[in-house]
Write a structure and sequence with these properties.
339 residues, mainly beta, eleven-stranded antiparallel β-sheet, elongated, disordered N terminus, disordered C terminus
Length: 339
């Protein structure tokens, strides 16, 4: 179970609105994509270097579940995310943890310390989670250079989760990432990122910032169902959580200092299947589907319906070939029957 406690596991049943990407100008075609857990275009935790086209929107609802060894803590977020293409290169996104559930199995819960981002103080607690808002700027798109997509991303964690209930830190955090991705043979999305998390410490605590990293793939990249796998983690600059306040005997602490577990610097893995609303076919089509609908008469496989003339709806016309064969059948007999 020790290994399982180090792995971030999750269960996601998602319904994602059509999320077209691949547009560095408004007249370019798009291709479908999914969303990350904080809302921007990507896989799950690993983002893509692509952005939404101008004026297009995407959203997702998901349950994100992961574990921490401190307190043997299981944390579940029921999140809703959104993204909007402010320009063809700038994507605005966000995520809201409508419900956060924390279940700590160790007794007392804080005798072995508290997770870096959750100041657990109860065996079971449920409440409102944190909000993330951010922006991603696409430096290069694969649609224009036929190579790789490159982007930078910044986000802020708004401390809306209760510190007193142990649902969060009660302080804002800041994230900055660099992203590179590529779609291979119109089948695989491959992506990697690296960046920093800057944490603000609550009263009586000293938390550490860290270097975040990850890589992943998604297949098939243009299907309504996607299998993806990721490896991601964080290397803490100081893996010691320091507490300078008065310990609470009811929760067994927290101790004056706690060394973060080996998950700092060791990647966690994610393997899952995502289902989403069927978005567009991609750039090779004469027109693409997007969040605003389908261009009439130009979607792939579209076949205009024939309409008969209203005066002929009651008539059943015989095939032309059969009528012609009757006219030429047995001309000798026809001549003999003539008066």
């Amino acid at each position: 179970m020790g290994i399982l406690r180090r792995l971030a596991t999750f269960m996601a049943v998602t319904l994602v609105a059509a999320s077209p990407v691949w547009a560095q100008s408004s007249d370019q075609a798009t291709r479908p994509a999914s969303s990350t857990v904080i809302g921007d275009t990507g896989l799950w935790f690993v983002p893509l270097g692509e952005t939404l086209p101008k004026g297009k929107a995407a959203g997702m609802g998901a349950r994100v579940n992961f574990d921490h060894s401190e307190g043997f803590t299981d944390i579940s977020d029921f999140r809703g995310t959104f993204a909007f293409g402010a320009t063809d290169k700038l994507e605005i996104f966000g995520a809201l943890a409508v419900v956060r559930r924390i279940d700590a199995d160790r007794r007392p819960v804080a005798v072995a310390g508290q997770p870096m981002d959750y100041m657990i103080s109860n065996e079971w607690k449920q409440g409102f989670g944190d909000i993330y808002v951010g922006a991603k700027y696409g430096i290069k798109s694969q649609a224009t250079n036929n190579g790789v997509a490159v982007a930078i991303r910044g986000a802020v964690k708004l401390p809306t989760a209760s510190f007193d209930d142990g649902l969060g830190t009660g302080k804002p955090d800041f994230l900055v990432d660099a992203i590179i991705s590529k779609e291979v043979n119109r089948k695989f999305d491959v992506s990697g990122f690296g960046g920093f998390t800057f944490r603000t410490s609550p009263d009586d605590y000293e938390l550490s910032s860290g270097f975040r990293y990850g890589a992943g793939f998604g297949w098939p990249s243009r299907s309504a169902f996607k299998l993806f796998g990721e490896a991601h983690g964080e290397y803490y600059f100081d893996n010691t959580v320091t507490f300078s306040g008065t310990p609470n005997p009811a929760i067994g602490g927290p101790p004056a200092s706690t060394t973060a577990p080996a998950c700092a610097g060791i990647p966690t893995t994610s393997i899952a299947v995502m289902s989403r609303a069927r978005p567009a076919r991609a750039a090779t089509a004469s027109a693409s589907r997007s969040g605003s609908g389908i261009t009439p008469g130009s979607a792939p496989g579209h076949r205009p319906r024939r309409r008969r003339h209203p005066r002929r709806r009651h008539r059943r016309l015989r095939p032309t070939g059969r009528r012609r064969s009757r006219r030429v059948a047995n001309p000798a007999r026809r001549w003999s029957e003539r008066p």
